Protein 1
Amino acid sequence: MKIGRVAGTVVSTICSPAYERQRLLLCDLLGEDLRPTGEYTIAVDSVYAGAGETVLIIDEGNSARQVTGIPEAPIRAVVVGS
Amino acid sequence: MKIGRVAGTVVSTICSPAYERQRLLLCDLLGEDLRPTGEYTIAVDSVYAGAGETVLIIDEGNSARQVTGIPEAPIRAVVVGS
Amino acid sequence: MKIGRVAGTVVSTICSPAYERQRLLLCDLLGEDLRPTGEYTIAVDSVYAGAGETVLIIDEGNSARQVTGIPEAPIRAVVVGS
Amino acid sequence: MKIGRVAGTVVSTICSPAYERQRLLLCDLLGEDLRPTGEYTIAVDSVYAGAGETVLIIDEGNSARQVTGIPEAPIRAVVVGS
Amino acid sequence: MKIGRVAGTVVSTICSPAYERQRLLLCDLLGEDLRPTGEYTIAVDSVYAGAGETVLIIDEGNSARQVTGIPEAPIRAVVVGS
C-alpha cells in the first residue's frame, strides 16, 4: 500500500458501464514525509474520502475487487483508509 | 488507472488470433497536468476513442478481460473512459 | 522479495473492515547494501517485526493472502521474515 | 502492450522443464519513436519473430498462458505480433 | 524474464513456515550487456544455481508457483535457468 492525497474526483463523459456507480479519486502519491512524489493514480473510493485528505491506497486488482465487493469489477486501485 | 491521450491505432501484420477483432490504441500517458510523461502503453479500446482524445486507461489483465467480456483474452491494458 | 526496514506502524482512523485486525508496517525498502533506496511500502505483518528490524517483504497479492491465511484479504505486500 | 525489437534468442544450459519447448526471445523495448529505451525483456515467442523484427510484447502472466495455450506455463511475457 | 547473477543466499532467522524448505537467492539484475543495473531481487531457486552464476529469473507469482509445484506457495520470483 501507498500513502496518497486526494486531489479531486474524476468524471468521464463516456465510460464502461462498470464505472457508472463508482466514485473515482485522483490521488497524488506521497512519500514517507507526506510530500508529493510527482506520481498519481486514479483509485476507486471505499471510505468516502474528500479532497485534500491523506489516504491509504492499495493498487492490486484482486484486492480492489474484494474491497468493493464486486468480484467482476474492472478496477485495480482502491482507497482503503483515511 | 492512468490518464492517456490516443496517439493512433496499432496495426500488426502477423499477430496472435486473439487480437484479430480488437482495436489497439497507442496511448501517450499523461501527468495530472495532462502533459505527456514520455511513457506510453498499447491498450485495447472499449469506448471507441479517437486520435487526440484524452482517455482513462486501466492496466491490469483481469480488469481488461472483464471490460472486453472475453474471459480468456490475452490483454492487459484497456481504454475504459474518454 | 525485497529487503526492508520497519519504520513504524500505520494507523488509519477510517478504514475498510478488512484491515481492522491487521498490523500494518511502514517499511523503507533497502538496497543490497542495506541502505535505504528512498522508496517504501506499507505491508501487513506476519512475523511480529518491530521498528528498526530488517525484514523480507513479498509484494504480490496472492502470496500475501497465502501468508495471512485469509483467501479474500485485500492485501498486496506482507512482511514474511526478519 | 509494448513495442520491442528482437535482439536474439536465449539459450539456457540448465532450465526448468517448462521452457524446453519454448523459444525465448531477448527483446529491446522501444519508445513510440521506435528507438531503444535501454530496457529489455525476455519473452516467449508466439509468432515466429526473427532477429531485428519489431514486435508487440504483452507482459502479463495470464495473457502469456492464453497465447501459448498452456494453462500451467510459468511465463509472463510473450511476443504476440510483428 | 530478466537476466540476473546470484550474489548469495538469504537466511532469515524468523520467517513464515512456507519458506522453510525454499532456498532463497539474492540476485543482481543484469542488463543485456550482463553488467549489473543496480537493482536486485530475492528469488526462490529451482535449478540449484550457485553464487556468481548468470541466471534467468521470472518475476510473476503464478509462474513461480508452477515452477516450484506448490500451488499455495507465497512466492513471486524464481530462478528458472542458468
Protein 2
Amino acid sequence: MEIATTPQRFDTAELATLLAGRWADVRQRVRKSLDENPLPPPEDPGTEAQREHVLAQMQQLATHGVAGLGFPASHGGEGDVGGSTVSLEMLGGNLSLMVKAGVQWGLFGGAVVALGTERHHDRYLTDIMDMSLPGCFAMTETGHGSDVQSLGTTATYDAETGEFVVHTPFEAARKEYIGNAARDGRMAVVFAQLHVGGEQHGVHALMVPIRDEQGVAMPGVSIEDSGRKGGLNGVDNGRLYFDHVRVPREALLNKFGDVAEDGTYSSSIRSRNKRFFTMLGALIRGRISIAGVSGASTKIALEVALRYGEVRRQFENPGTQAETPVLDYLAHQRKLLPALAKSYALHFAQEELVSCLHDLSTAEQVDEWQQRELESRAAGLKALSSWHALHTIQTCREACGGAGYLAENQLTGLRDDIDVFTTFEGDNTVLLQQVAKGLLTNYKDEFEELGTLGMARFVADQFVGAVIERTAARKILQRIADAAPGRDDEDVLFDRGWQLNLFDDREQHVLEGVAKRLRRATSDGADPFEVFNNAQDHVLRAARVHVDRVVLEAFVAAVERCTDPDLAVVLGQLCDLYVLSTVEEDKAWFLEHERISGGRAKAVTEAVNTLCRRLRPHAVSLVEAFGTPRQWITAPIATGAEAARQQEQRTHEQ
Amino acid sequence: MEIATTPQRFDTAELATLLAGRWADVRQRVRKSLDENPLPPPEDPGTEAQREHVLAQMQQLATHGVAGLGFPASHGGEGDVGGSTVSLEMLGGNLSLMVKAGVQWGLFGGAVVALGTERHHDRYLTDIMDMSLPGCFAMTETGHGSDVQSLGTTATYDAETGEFVVHTPFEAARKEYIGNAARDGRMAVVFAQLHVGGEQHGVHALMVPIRDEQGVAMPGVSIEDSGRKGGLNGVDNGRLYFDHVRVPREALLNKFGDVAEDGTYSSSIRSRNKRFFTMLGALIRGRISIAGVSGASTKIALEVALRYGEVRRQFENPGTQAETPVLDYLAHQRKLLPALAKSYALHFAQEELVSCLHDLSTAEQVDEWQQRELESRAAGLKALSSWHALHTIQTCREACGGAGYLAENQLTGLRDDIDVFTTFEGDNTVLLQQVAKGLLTNYKDEFEELGTLGMARFVADQFVGAVIERTAARKILQRIADAAPGRDDEDVLFDRGWQLNLFDDREQHVLEGVAKRLRRATSDGADPFEVFNNAQDHVLRAARVHVDRVVLEAFVAAVERCTDPDLAVVLGQLCDLYVLSTVEEDKAWFLEHERISGGRAKAVTEAVNTLCRRLRPHAVSLVEAFGTPRQWITAPIATGAEAARQQEQRTHEQ
C-alpha cells in the first residue's frame, strides 16, 4: 500500500486562510474584541460570581458591536446572519458566555426579529442589542422539551379587555431551564397554546414582562432558580410560572398568526402544524450556532491535548535512552488524530451550513425544499458536532491523565459545559430521527402532518427509493466520483472518488433498506407505531450515514479549493484519515454488506495507523491553524509549564 | 429465531441474595452504618465545605468500625480483606468519601500493613484506623504517574546520623495529586529512589511526617493545594516538596528491603525490578476497590435513568392517544439495557476478583502465577469497569435530557467524580497493555525485566501460542462449551456453549495474531520499540477480548448458580444481551475473521433488539436488586417528582 510522501512543511498561513473562510473578517473582529475579555479563574468562584462575570462580559461584547451583527440594518444591526453565527462560534472557550449571548441575541432577539413584526422591532431591538433589555426565550417546559408542540402553557384572548391571559395550568407546564430567567431577564418570549373564542390555534409566542426595572418579579409571575447544573453555571437558568398574567393584544409576535381586536384569528398559513414548523424553521440559527461552537470547543481541547502530548514524556525508549513523548505512541495518536481529522471535516461542513443559512436569509425567494434541506442539515450537524465535541473533549481529558483532571487545564470545564449541547436545542436522538424522516419522505408537504405514525404509512404508500438531490456545487464532486477506479485497484482506499462513492452508496443502501423494511412491516398490517419503533435503530443509522456523506463532501470540496500543493497533500491525507477512521468505526456494516472484503478491512486499519504516524509531526500546526483566540487557551500544561518541567528534569539528569 | 418466553415475574429476593454474594453481611453492615451518613447537598457548597463534610463522614465511618475490616486482627482489625474491599464499593454514591477513605485505610494504611513490619504496625495501625493519624500515599509525581518506577524523589541514607534524607530534586519530582495532603494529612508514605553508600536500590517507601499536631507543615516540607479538579472536590489533593527532610532509619517500610545501621542494604528479593513489582503487587487492593466502586456508581446512574425512563413520557402514540413512556422507545432501551446487562456481568466478575484477592491474602502459600493472575485481572477489570462507568453514567445523563443535567439529579456529579477513575490507580491504556504483556509472556519470570522493548524480543523468541490456564471452577463452563451445537444451528446465538466458545476463540485468535506479528516484525530486524508501538492497537485489543472472556465466564457461572427457574430464565436472557451486544460492538472483527456470517450478524442485531423489548418490563426490578443503599438515590426525577407531575398533568387533561 502506497501513501504519497507527506511534505515536511506546508503553508500554514494558507491553511489558516482556508479555515477562516468566508467570515474571516468577523473572526478577526471578534478575536480583537475578546482581547479584553479573559476567562474566569479556574477555581470555581461560586454560582453567583460566575453569573456576574458572564454578564459583565456580555455587556462588553455589546459595546464592541458584535451583538448587532445578526440584527436588521434597518434597526442599527448589520444584517449579517452568517457573521452573527460565526461570532457566537468564536466564544468556544467560554461556553457560559456563548450560551447567554445566544439566549439574548440569538433566541430572544432572534424570535422578536423572526416571529414579530415592525411594531416589535421598533420597540425592542435597540434595547436588546445594547443589553438594556435582557430577555428570555421561554419555550421548553418541564413536561415537554423534545415535543414542544405539546406544551401546556396557555394564552387565552379576552376580547372584552383586548388582552391575552398567559397561564401555567399544572406544574409540568412551567417554563424550565430558561436562560436569563433566574437573575437578569426582564422580558420573555413565551410560547403558549393560543386560545381564541374557544378555539385552539396551536403554539404562538408572546412578549411577557417578567421583572420590573428593579428586578422584582411582575405580578402573577413566579420565578425559581433552576439551581446548580452540570456545567454552564455562568448562565442563570430559571423556571417561570404564570398565574393568569395579562398582556396586551399587541404582545403577540404576529408574523405568522394574529388576533384582531374583536377576536378574529388570521394566519397566512392554514395548517396548524405547518405554521408551527414554519415558526421553528425561522429560529434555526440557534441550532446552527450550537453546531459551530461545539466545533470551536473541540478545537480548544485538541489544542491542549496535542500541545501536552508533544512535550509530555513517559517511559524510556531503551533504543534512544530518552523518555518517549506520549504523542509518539500509536495508541495516543489514535485517540487524538482521527478526532482532529473529523474536526476538520465538521469545520468545513459547518462553514457550508452557515453559508447556506446566510444565503437563504438574504434570498429574495426561498423555496420550501431549500428551507427543509437547511433545517435537516442543521439538525444533523448539530447532533454529530455536539457528540463529537463531548467525546473528543473527554478523550483529550483522558489523554492528559491526571493533569487533564485539574480544573486549570480547562478540559473538565469544557466537558461539563458541552455535555448539555447533546440534548438542548433539540435532543440529538430526536434530531437524527427528524433528519431520517425528511430523507424518507423527501420533505413532502405531508411531512409535518405525518408524525411518527403517519410516517410509516407514508413510506409504505409512497416511498419510491431515496432521491438524493444534488446542488450545483456538487457537480465537481460527481466528476471525482465518476473517475473512481474499480473496486480491485490496490490503492483504492486513498482514491477520493472511491471514498465519495463508498459513503454515497452506504447512504442509499441504508435509506432504501429502512424504506423497504417499513413498507414490508406495514403491509403485514402491523401497528405502525410498533413498526416504526422496532426500526428505530435502523432509522437513526440512516440519518447518521447521510450526515457523514454531507460532511465528507464538504471536506473534499475544501481540499479541492487548496492551491498550495504541499498543503493539498497534507489536507488530503487528513481527509483520508477522516474517511478511513469513519469506515473503520462502521466496518461491520461494510463487511456485512460486502462493500469491502476482509482483506481490505484489514488494510483500512493499517492505513489509519500509517496516516496517524505520517500526520503526527504536523499535529500541533494543524490544530493551531484553526486560529482559536489565544485567551481561550490558558491551560498551564499547554502553555509552557510542562515543557519547562521536562527541560529542568533533563538538565538535572545530565 | 426463537427466544424462550420471558417470565412475567421472578423471585427478586433470590436475585438480591445472588448479587449480594459472599460478603452480604458486610454489605448489610455498611448499609446500616450509612443510614446516618447522608449525601452532601447538590448545590456546590464550595471546596472547603465539601472537604469538611467528607472528613466528618470519614470520622463517622471510623466510629462504626467499618474502617477496621481490612486491618490485621492482631492490631484491632478484622482481617477481612475481601470485606474491606466490598465496604469501599458500598460508598459508590459519594465518591469523594470513597476516595478519601481509600487513601486513608486502603493506600496509606494498606502500605503500612503490606510494606512495613511489626514496628510500624504497632506504632501506627490503631491511629490510622480511628483517624487520629490522617495520612497520605505519596507515590505519584508530576513527572511520573504511569511510570512510577522512574520517579525522581530521593531518599539517601546518612550512615553518620542513621537517618534518611528525603529530597525533591526538581519540580517534576514533586509529589502530585496526593489525597489528604492539602488539608488533613499528618504523615505520608513517601516513595523514593533509595540511595545507600553511593548505590541505588530502586523505589522504596518511608514514613515521613508532613504536618505537626497543629496542622503546620514540618520543617523542609512544602505543601501546595492541587486546586479545583473536575470532580472529587471533597478530597483535599495536594503537592508535596521535600527539601532535605531527615527521618530516622526506622522510617523505612522495610518488609522487602532494609538498611542496617552501618548502611548495609539487604532484601529478600535480589532483582530490583522484581522487588518493585512485588511491592506494587502488595498494594493491589486499591485497584480492585476502584473497579468495585466504579460498578456501584454505574448502578446508581442506571437506577436514576431507568426509574425516570419508566415514568417520563414524550410524544403521543396516536394508537393509544397517550404519551409514550420514553423507556418504551427502542432507541432508549438500546442506550440503557445493554449497559445494565454489562453491569451485571462486571458485578459477577468483580465478586470473583474480590474472592480471589481474599483467598490469596489468607492463603498459607501463594504461588507466583496466582499472584500475577490476580494482578492481571485487577488491572483488566479496573480498566473495563471504570470506562463502562464513565460511558454509562454519561449515557444516563443524556437519556434524562435536561433533567439529567441538573445537579440535584446526581448524574453530572457522578460523571465528574468517576471521570478520573479511568486514569488514576493506573491509566487504563497502560493497564491494558500490562494485561496483554502478561498474556503474551504467560507471566514468565522475565516479565518485569522486559519492559516494552524486551517484550517484543521475548515474544519473538519464546512465545509458543497463548496458553490460557483454567481454574478448577471453570470445568463446569468447559462442559457447557463442549456441549455447544455446531455453527449452523438456528438458535445458536442463545446457546451458552456457543457463546463461551465464541469469546474464547476470539481471545486465542487475537493473542496468537499479536504474537505472530511481533515475531515476524522482530525477525525482520526492525527496531523492537517501533515494532511494539506499531502493534499497540492490536496489543490493547488482545487485553480487551481477554477481559471480555473472563467477565462472560463469571456471568455464566452466576446464571448456573441460580436455583429459581424463572429467575434463571431472566438472568440468562440478561446474559444473552451482554453477549450479543458485546458481539455487536465488535461485529467487524467477527465478520472480518469469518466467525459469523453476514446473515448471522444481522440476526445478532435483531436479537439485541428483541432482548431489549423482552427485558424492558423488568428493567427497574433488575436495577433495584443491586441493593444500592437508599440514601445514595436522592435524584428527584427518580424518587417521585416526575411521577407526580405526570399524574397531575393526566388529571388535568381528563
Protein 3
Amino acid sequence: MDAAEFRKRGKEMVDYVADYLEKIDKRQVFPDVEPGYLRPLIPDCAPQDPESFEDVFKDIEKIIMPGAASPACTELETVMLDWLGKMINLPEEFLAGKDGQGGGVIQGSASEATLISLLAARTKTIRRVQSENPELTEAEIMGRLVAYASDQAHSSVERAALIGGVKIKNVSSDDKFTVCGSALKKVLDEDKASGLIPFFFCATLGTTPCCSFDRLLELGPICNKENIWMHIDAAYAGSAFICPEFRHLLNGVEFADSFNFNPHKWLLVNFDCSAMWVKKRSDLIGAFKLEPLYLQHHHQERFRSLKLWFVLRMYGVTGLQEHIRKHVRLSHQFEHLVLQDERFEICAEVVLGLVCFRLKGSNELNKALLKSINEAKKIHLVPCYLREKFVLRFAVCSRTVESTHVKFAWQHISQLATDLLQTWEHDDHQQ
Amino acid sequence: MDAAEFRKRGKEMVDYVADYLEKIDKRQVFPDVEPGYLRPLIPDCAPQDPESFEDVFKDIEKIIMPGAASPACTELETVMLDWLGKMINLPEEFLAGKDGQGGGVIQGSASEATLISLLAARTKTIRRVQSENPELTEAEIMGRLVAYASDQAHSSVERAALIGGVKIKNVSSDDKFTVCGSALKKVLDEDKASGLIPFFFCATLGTTPCCSFDRLLELGPICNKENIWMHIDAAYAGSAFICPEFRHLLNGVEFADSFNFNPHKWLLVNFDCSAMWVKKRSDLIGAFKLEPLYLQHHHQERFRSLKLWFVLRMYGVTGLQEHIRKHVRLSHQFEHLVLQDERFEICAEVVLGLVCFRLKGSNELNKALLKSINEAKKIHLVPCYLREKFVLRFAVCSRTVESTHVKFAWQHISQLATDLLQTWEHDDHQQ
C-alpha cells in the first residue's frame, strides 16, 4: 500500500470506528454465532496472489462482526496460524485443522514462546519422572532438571530457565556457530551420569549474532530418544521458510514439540505477532491447568490475528516471497561489495538478510569504525562478538529498502573506513 | 472527545503517519538526545484540568520525536507512572523521581504483575534463606516456599505460583469476603510449624467476584515482620483511588513491596496498560539478572505510555475523577432499584461500580434468570459464586453509560424476573 492509498484507507477506517461508536447502542451485546462458525466461512489456505483492500475489508462486516471479539478472535487466530503453518510447510501434526491435536497461537515475542514451552516441558517431565519414581518429590525432581541451548542462543532462553526455576547449560557451537548432534550428546551423557534430568532443548534457526542454524536433523532424534522437549526458536529466520529455496533450513522440525517464529520481524506484520505452534495442545493445557492458552486470555482484546489476515491476503504468498527474496538479494549485494574490498572480511556465512563483517585488524579498530558509523547517524549498526572477534552486523530489514540504499551504505562505510585507517596508522593505535 | 472531533483528529493522525513514512529517509537514524533528557521537559504531575488535543499533540514533535523510540519510550513511561502514582497518593518510596529506588512500569495485565512480583520475591527469599542456611540447596528451599492469597483472589495468582514452581495456599476470607490479619496469621503459624517457608502474599483490593477489599492495615505489618513480600492486586479498584473519598481503601499500601492496578480497566486508557510499582527496582533487576524490566524489552515497540500521557492530559485529574464518580453513582442507583424490589437481595456491599444481587430463592432460579437475561441479548451479565450462592453481577463499565441505561437494565431484569417467576411457580421447579 503506497502513501496515497494509506491516506485514503486510513481515513475510511477512522470513519468506520466513529460510526461504530456512534451506533454502538444499536448493536447486540452478545453474538448469535456458535463456536466453530468461522472456519467454514474462509478459505483453508492463504491466497497466492494479492487481494484488494476492499475485498479483505468487506469480510470484516461479513465474517468478523457477527462473531464480535469472542469467538471470532480465537477462531480467526487458529485459522490464520494454520494458513501460516501451511505457507512454511509445517508438518500437519502442528496444525489445528478441524480436529487436530496440534495448533498455533499468537504470542507477544519469541521470549514468551520459549518460556511457555519450557514450562510445559517442565510439567510434562515432572509428571513422567514422578510416575516412574513415586518416591521423588516434585521439588527433588525440579532440582535435577536441566535445559539446554546453544552458546549462540538468545538470552531469553536463559531467562526462561531462571523464571522456571531450573538449571540451564550452554551447548558448544562449532566453527560455523551451529550446534550439532555430537555436542548435545556429549553434555547429555555427562549430565545424566551425574544424576541430572535433561528435559528441554531450545534449538535456534537463525541465531541473533550471525544467523547460524542448529542441525535439527541430528538434534531432533536425540531429543526424541531422551524424552527431551525440543523447541525451535526461528524468531527472525522463520519468515524465509515461505520460500521453497529456504525451506530446507527447517528440515527436522518434524522432531520438535514446539516451533516459533515472528511474523512481526520479517513478514510485514506490525508488532506484536509471534507465531507459536505445538504438536500437542494438551501439553500446554496440562501445564497451566486453568486455561488452554495461558497468559493469553487478556490478549484476546488485541485481536492480533486480524493484522495477519490483512497482510497475508493483501500481499498474497507471492508478494511476501518477493519481499523475503529481495532482502536476501540485497544482503548478498552487500556481501559482494565487502568481498571486493581487501581491507574487510566476511565473518559468517550469509544465508538470509544479515551480513557479519569487519575490517581485517584488531577489535579496537573495528570498535572505532562502528563508533564513527553510528556517530555519523546516516545508518545504524548493532555489533556482536563472534567468539573473541568484535563484528559489525549489516541487517537488511526495512520494507522500503532498495539496492541504492545498500550501495549508499557501503560507500559510506568504506569512506569512513578510509578516514579511520589514515588516522589510525598515523596515530599508531595498533596493538 | 466526541465522534466529530474523533473523525477530525483521527484523519489528521492518518496524514501525520503517512507524512512520516513518506519522509522517513530524511530523518536521522538515531536520536541526538542524552538519556534523562525527557523528565525536565514535562511537568512533574498530571494537570488538574483538561488540555486540548492540539496542545498535547504539539508536544509529540517537541518532546517525543527528538527522542524517537529510545530513550523516549522508557523515560516517558517512568514519568507517567510517577504522575499516576501521585494521583493515587502512593507513598513516595514507590516513585522513581529523579533518583529514587522505586518506580513504576507498564505491564500487559495484572496477571503479569503478579507473576513478576512472585518471581522477584522467590529470588529474594532464596538468597536470604541460603545466606542464613548455607547447607540448603536452592531446590530444597524452593520445595518449602509457600505463597498465599485470599480464597476470593483471581486465578492468576494460582497460575503465577504454578509457573514459579512453588506451593500456593488460600487464606480464608470472612463473611464480608475480605482477608483479615488473624486469618493470615493462623495459616502462617501452621505452615511455619511444619517447616514451610512463607514468602509471598497477594492482597486483593477489589476482588473479581464481589469487589471486596483485604485489610492491608492488619496484613501489612504481619508480612513485614515475617519477611513476606506483600503484593497488592487492585486491578479494577485501583483507578478509584484518584478520588480522595476512595483513597482510604488503599491505606496500608505503605507496607507493600509491589502494587498494581489497570488503567485499561477503569481509567479510560485502551488495552493494554497495567500499571505496576515496586519499592525497590533492584529486587526486579536482581531476580531477572539480564534486564532491569524483564520481559519488557520487546514491549518498547508498543510505547504504551503515550496513551496514558494523552488520557491524563486530555481528561485532567478532575475529568477522570468525574468519570469514576459517575460510575459509582450509577451502581448505587442500580443498588437502590434492587433494594426497592422485595423479590431481590443485594449480596455484597456496593463500594465501587459493581452490584452483586440475586432473586431470593434457589441457585436454579437465579441461573434461570441469568439465562433469560443473557439470551435476550439486551444486556449481558457475568455471574459468580459467593460461597455456595449463585449471584448475578451488574457492572457499570462503559465510558458512555448514563442513568437511563441503568434504569432500562433494571426494568428489563425486573420484567424478565416477573415472567420467570410466573412460569417457575407454575412448573413448581422449586426444590
